[in-house]
Amino acid sequence: MWTHILLKDKYCSVSSSLVFQMLHLTKGCVGCLLSRRAVLALTNSGARMSSHDHHEVSNNLDMSQPMYSDRLDTPLPDRPWKDVLDSTDKSLKQNEKGPWTALSKEEKITLYRLKFNHTYPEMKRPSHEWKTVIGGMFILFGITGLLSLNLLFFFSCVYPPQPHTFGEEWQAKQIQRMLDMRINPIEGFSAQWDYKNKQWK
Amino acid sequence: MFRPVVRLSTSGVRSLTRTRQCYSAPLASRCYSHAKVETDEEFDARWVTYFSKPDIDAWELKKGMNTLIGYDLVPEPKILDSALRACRRLNDLASAIRILEAVKDKSGPHKDIYPYLIQELQPTLIELGISTPEDLGMDIL
């Protein structure tokens, strides 16, 4: 269904043929809006992905080794954030073995950042993901609405022709017949008809 | 121990399976589990002993802390004191600061627990030279 959104010129063409037709038929603003929104969604997700620090971004992520994770319920992960230390970090680590009162605030912060990626407030920071979700939701609602209402009102090709019994003339004759038969004369249909004055009560 | 009250009640659910045995029992007795419930003091003592191990290694510290944070409670100051001293033995300042952050997060909406803990731990923090996350400006984004 809506699995892939490919950018094609100014419009978004989706793998579903229905939408393709719909886009061509409605044209103009809808198509542009979709493409802009899709670009936004894609770039949003791209930004989200890049903001996750991939410590070993390459294909050699060894899942059999202890891995680092920023989790609120796991304060001390299996592995420190930075494994490979340069000389300044190494000397700082040496100082860490001495009294911590001798360390400056910056050194303490550096030591923390060597071992951990995000602090707890950084882990709990709010993200903008909800906007993407709600936006995507509304887009889908809109597409569905456009599809269903378009086809319903303008193209009527979804429904077969109405039975002949729905016509105005037939309905009138039907109602007259029902009144003549005195359908539900006490509480229902014929009870609403004033037979003396030949009108509805 | 800052536990929720619910945990203190013993398991009355098991009475369903034990109804037969208690059929002739006097009305006053209940069919609760006969397991001994650990008191708060025993719990605290157990954890203080765990972190007080002189040759504790980094893995044991990690395991202990992660397990402790997994419980539905905020650890007592004496347990945290023991854990911070374990960090000192392991020459790990970063983990000490992380522990303080973790217990602040554990207190959740109860904003008065963390200041109390820091107040109780102040002598230890000064002695070992551990700065709180607030001192280092790491409690804000």
Automatic annotation (TrEMBL), chain A:
Pfam families: COX4 (PF02936). GO terms for biological process: mitochondrial electron transport, cytochrome c to oxygen. Its main location: mitochondrion. The chain crosses the membrane at residues 133-155. It is a single-pass membrane protein. It is found in: Mitochondrion inner membrane. Pathway: Energy metabolism; oxidative phosphorylation. InterPro entries: Cyt_c_oxidase_su4, Cyt_c_oxidase_su4_fam, Cyt_c_oxidase_su4_sf. Keywords: Membrane, Mitochondrion, Mitochondrion inner membrane, Transmembrane, Transmembrane helix. GO terms for cellular component: mitochondrial inner membrane; respiratory chain complex IV. Component of the cytochrome c oxidase, the last enzyme in the mitochondrial electron transport chain which drives oxidative phosphorylation. Component of the cytochrome c oxidase (complex IV, CIV), a multisubunit enzyme composed of 14 subunits. The complex is composed of a catalytic core of 3 subunits MT-CO1, MT-CO2 and MT-CO3, encoded in the mitochondrial DNA, and 11 supernumerary subunits COX4I, COX5A, COX5B, COX6A, COX6B, COX6C, COX7A, COX7B, COX7C, COX8 and NDUFA4, which are encoded in the nuclear genome. Belongs to the cytochrome c oxidase IV family. This is Cytochrome c oxidase subunit 4.
